[in-house]
């Protein structure tokens, strides 16, 4: 009897312990806090209320996708231990907000002190331990090597090859090497008209190691524009080792700007000249960006087209294979291997017209007509065999 009573008591204790543990788990789940999502409607108001650490991100960008769970962990820890808000801003849905805070690459992390609208950029490691050190420093003012007031602006990172320069980064960036820089004002009509072409130029030269394509807003960074005696917009300067070499005054088409870049690089020295003689061959043989040029380039023979986005992980893995595929058909005038960047303004309507809804999308055309969409393995042999099935003449019965 005593044994039965003892077992009953033990069972009740175990049930009580189990219920307690489950309640703790549920409590923890309920208390879990994620990074707060700000938009253009509430950002400027909320940011002033207390210290903030903000991630400006692109939801499709692989680095942002990897950082997001860490950022949510940081938010949860900060909520329980520190007096600082961990927030994020989607730069696709709120692009103007990101532009106003000079976000030129993703993710960009900025600290906003309570009551201030201008953030200070953090460029260190993005591990959870490193980020915890940052918020510990912000909260306590000690215990970390990250010193917010002493952050030296890093050289800018490109967005599709185009660099957005500021008063803090301009001198350091252009101090060495060759630079083609657009000095502009956002309200200028000619600047607005040039903007997509300038982005196209930067994107087409983003793998060129001899020149950088950049821009600087003269309404925001007066001292730099004054230093180069900018009197009209847009002004396009070729800069070598921090000094103006030439001002471009030709036609503002992609072809003319690209030809000018090749000419200026051809003057550098013999070693660079050898490389720039084949500047076009280092990039895809056709980069179709408009409906008109696309139709023209696929109207004869077999054309295999890759529709892609630079941020797409699958596209990045396919890129070197696509170059190898192009090499295999260099001597075949009947085959065109093409790629189209669907993120560029001048090519978005083309991608919509071709019903591109994921990246990469691979379409095969013959004499201007779409015959097939490739959905097989993305290795060189299979891609080559797929094209050859449409190239080789079939035996007649």
Strand-helix topology:
Elements lengths: L1 H30 L4 E3 L4 H4 L5 E6 L4 H20 L3 E6 L4 H6 L7 E5 L7 E3 L5 H13 L21 E4 L4 H5 L3 E7 L4 H16 L6 E7 L4 H6 L7 E6 L2 E6 L5 H13 L3 H8 L13 H8 L3 E7 L4 H16 L6 E7 L3 H9 L7 E6 L2 E6 L5 H12 L6
Parallel strand pairs: 1-3, 2-3, 6-8, 7-8, 11-12
Antiparallel strand pairs: 2-4, 4-5, 7-9, 9-10, 11-13, 13-14
How does this model look, in words?
Helices cover 42% and strands 20% of the residues. It is α/β, with parallel strands linked by helices and 397 residues long. The strands form three sheets. It has a five-stranded mixed beta sheet with strand order 1-3-2-4-5. A hairpin with a 2-residue loop joins strand 13 (361-366) and strand 14 (369-374). The longest helix has 30 residues, at 2-31. It is globular and about 70 Å long. The termini are far apart. Mean pLDDT is 78; it is low at 24-30, 142-153 and 268-288.
